[in-house]
Amino acid sequence: MNEDAADADVLVVGYGPVGQVLSIMLAQRGWRVTVVEKYVEPYNLPRAVSFDRHVGRILGTIGVADALAPVSELTKDYVVVNGEGRTLMHFELNHDDRYRWPEATSFYQPGLESALVGRGEQLPGLRVLRGFEAVGLTEEDDSVRLTVRSKDGERVLAARWLVGCDGANSFVRKRLGVSVSASDYAADWMACDVMPHDTAQFPSQNVQVADPAQPRVDLSAGPSHSRWEFMRLPGQSFEDFDTVENAWRLLTHFGVNPDNATLQRYVAYTCLGRNADRWRSRGPGRVFIAGDAAHVMPPHAGQGMCTGIRDVTNLAWKLHLVLAGSAGEELLDSYEAERRPDAQRTIDMSVNLAELIGTVDPAVAGYRDSALLAVRGADDAPSRDPEAFARPGEEALKAGLFQQSADGLFAGPDSRIVPQARTGRADAGELCGGTFVLLSLDDPETLVEPVLAGRLGALGCSIVHLTPDVDIDGTYTAWLKEAVLAPAALIRPDFHVYGAAGTRAEMTEMLNGLVNDLAQDVSTLP
């Protein structure tokens, strides 16, 4: 057995989209990252088919936005119909001018992964070991050792931290002995990935068919690709359900047959909702889990991959600060405190949708239809209320790293997501993301004491004076005045609001709170 020295700052197990985003985020910040992936080649068929505007924004910050255009398309709405075709729910997913990304985007996953792999290959600090399976894991006070096996035998890799992004059957989670809390919901579904021969015959849709005779789903999986899913009915064996003949039989619900489409794959799976009870190892605490290793959920809200990408976006900047010596290791406790509850809310929402769509009792379905049709009213118009459609990841943080008051309660604005508007800066890039950013309507020198400005600089924080030349559309100005209700807000690297201040004294209190939250020994900062 070969043993490597501590040749990485972070080890990542699993190189699907979640592991790819985490690895890129860390390598972009200059850290050495080694990824272990048991499969020799990338999986060349889609699993996820949708991402939301928050995840689109995240993907933009890691340099793959342009590469996504050929493999993605706008999702215009979210529709639920009953077996008779009557609309039970209809949400228009309009583009919000305060954000550069649409509310939802349908995409072809192999294209996304190709873009992420290509971006990773541009980063010298990122090493990907394909064909290596994790088989052993030990923690020490200052390092983690991972035993991996390939066709050439076993070797040991070492790093300061390890993150398991290795899917629902996670080796890392099992090795840590982490239990999971599961919802009562469980149902078998079949996903059929199809390439229509004539895309005009099968226009892109986002429709959930709540038909008790056969619950089913019609989704875009990116340009020229479609995803149709079907629930296994009571009385049908899994063996009879999981056949290519049954896949084609089910596809006839949508007029799909071998003469007008190619079936790329079909897969039957059990749809569950579960959340790991711990996301960080005990003891030295140098191992984390993220993505499907930490949680799984029904696909009806399109949030499985999105939730995982939000996980690693939260974890990456915290690992960066700890590795850089700008924060104590206790900061990493906020990862689970912030992400696990958000994942649970998303699981609950997804389960509720799955139960609503998957009702097979005709009487129960009839009551459901009556209730939802009554809510829709006579005009039958889609909802255009921007708050009517849930946005996972944009809820207020209930615990974690944000402005605290003397009694420990949240003292600033709800920790929601800062807008992403156009700016007049020369680089025309994202104003926030990747580092802390202090946005101020007033001259920052009037609000920030020089010593605290130096401490912010040591943390990599940017201070932005929102003059009309910077905030060219007035979006950030309006947001501070109307939503934050303060002239200045401190934005975290993951776009959440840390806190707000209206006076120099409030700013001093908030920034001292941040310094104390991040570093045990503030004397190490300027």
Structure description:
By secondary structure, the chain is an alpha/beta fold. Helices cover 29% and strands 26% of the residues. It has 14 helices and 23 strands. The chain has helices at residues 17-28, 53-61, 65-68, 109-121, 171-176, 238-241, 244-251, 304-323, 333-357, 362-376, 444-447, 450-458, 475-484, 504-518; strands spanning 2-3, 8-13, 33-37, 50-52, 72-74, 77-82, 87-92, 104-107, 126-130, 133-139, 144-150, 153-164, 180-196, 206-210, 216-220, 226-231, 261-276, 287-289, 295-296, 437-440, 462-465, 488-491, 497-501. Strands 1, 2, 3, 9, 10, 11, 12 and 18 form an 8-stranded mixed sheet that branches. Strand 10 (133-139) and strand 11 (144-150) form a beta hairpin. Helix 1 runs parallel beside helix 4 and helix 1 runs parallel beside helix 8. The longest helix is centred in the middle third of the chain and has 25 residues, at 333-357. The radius of gyration is 24 Å and the shape is globular.
